[in-house]
Request: fold
Amino acid sequence: MGERDDRDDEVDLIIDAWSRRLPDVDLTPLDVMSRLRRVANRLGRLRASAFSEAGLAAWEFDVLAALGRAESPHELSPAQLIEATMIGSAAMTNRLDNLSRRGLVERLPHPTDRRSVLIRLTSEGATRVDDAMRRLAHREAEELRGLSREEQATLALLLRRLAQDSVQDSE
Reply:
């Protein structure tokens, strides 16, 4: 980033107002978390736009991306997809029905378990998810252009630690 902008932003003004109202409360965490929330909201809009331009909804991208990351032939069981996307079984069934209707995935008989199926990414699904990922990577790079590579690496490290602490606290 090089030079630092020390002007008050909206978060500073909010913290100042609450500090006057609740002078006995340490509002330091809001300095970070409020900005994280704002960045997360902006990221959500950025991602939705990138996915939409590739003809996908965010939930479609999540499922197709999990399949795209799998080894060729890019197939997973519904249980593996549920684990990878952290959604419930009923929601996954609905999502797979929709993606199958759109020709983005196909259901195949499981080779070793006749009661189960495998979900495979179709060529159209692969094209869409790859396009969405390219658009997303480009947009996210644009969002980070004000930070040096070193600053980006430091931020990633700090966020990783924060995310790991959050996961450990919830267990």
The helical segments are 10-21, 28-53, 58-69, 78-85, 89-101, 123-143, 149-170.
